[in-house]
Amino acid sequence: MRENLAQAPPRPWVPFREFIGNNPYLGFFRTNDLTVIVSRRPVSMLPASYRHESVQFFIALSPVHGGSRDGRPIFVPGGTVYPVNGSQSHAVTEPIPNVSFISLYFRYPFFQKMCRTLRGSPDTEFENGLIEYDAELKGLMHAFFREYGGGRRGNPYIGSDVMIGSIVTQLAVSLIRRLRFTAAPAQEPQGASEMERAVEHLNENPAPCTLSELSRMVNVNRFTVLRKFREHTGVTPHQFQMTVRIHRAMDILKDPHLPIAEVGELCGFSNPSHFARVFRKKTGLSPTEYRRQFLSDMARRQSKAPQKVNNGTANGQ
Q: What is the pTM of this model?
């Protein structure tokens, strides 16, 4: 792994960014470990290719023809779930009209952590076999949308954030149980599990973490943790965490209503000037310039890609 953004640590990735926001066709639901996109009504999916590090589960509420995976055509019947590995190439090869869907994107470090807990191995590669969208999964999705709505608009339900975290974990467990993994759990190299724990901690916690704190957490001395971390990731812990923070900031900056200073604070930066300086060093743009460019690109893509819509709403929530 290198320090540049193209090879940064896994992070949530969301397709159709240009259609998110006050969009009448798609709903966007984001948590720490899971991003969900749901069609509010049937939409037309336009040809495009995708490859992202999040682990995706595409729930087809209506039949979907015209897709491909690794260059091979696929068909997803209504009422089934199509799983996609992180970094696996997939595409819409031709316009697909009148599609109703729910798409889940698990953050890769979270999904890997769940695989380690359930299977005793961080290996996450699985076959792309269809999964039935059964009563258990429907119930979990219904609970997720109910808690999300109550916790983030109107009068919040007491404990909504706790409930949502529990539901996300239950969804991951339910889906992992149904997957066919391509390899049996293998023994990890000595020291790999400690470095995985360190990577997981830095991925999940934007607050500054010193080398001494990291060494205490994995129970090895500072010099050893620095050497092993660099061998494991290609960068130092500080460089790794800075890249994670900037990617998180790039994601949050796409919300035009959140003040720049608050974005920096959410991503663990001590003050706005420090945030702006590091962000420009990593991306070549200031946070304000990045947001302005994103919104401009989003408006241009929206004007070039109108959606064909039939009346009605998506079922399955």
A: 0.57
Residue whose token pair is 């696996």: 88
Per the structure, the count of domains in the chain is 2
The closest of 201, 238, 233 to 9, measured between CA atoms, is 233
Considering all CA atoms of the chain, what is the largest pairwise distance in Å, rounded to the nearest integer? 62
- For the record, the structure tokens of 138 come out as 């429907």
* Residue 272, strand partner residues: none
Instruction: Report the C-alpha gap between 239 and 124 in whole angstroms.
Output: 25
Domain shared by 159 and 64, yes or no: yes
Structure tokens at 72: 């091979």
User: Do residues 198 and 177 share a domain?
Assistant: no
Q: Which of residues 148, 163, 187 is at a domain's end?
A: 187
pLDDT tens digits, 174-188: 999 999 988 655 444
C-alpha 9/C-alpha 109 separation (Å) is: 9
The continuous run of DSSP H or E covering 202 comes out as helix 192-204
Q: Which residues face 76 on adjacent strands? A: 64
- In this prediction, residue 23 carries a pLDDT of 59
**268: nearest Cα among 290, 287, 242, 250:** 242
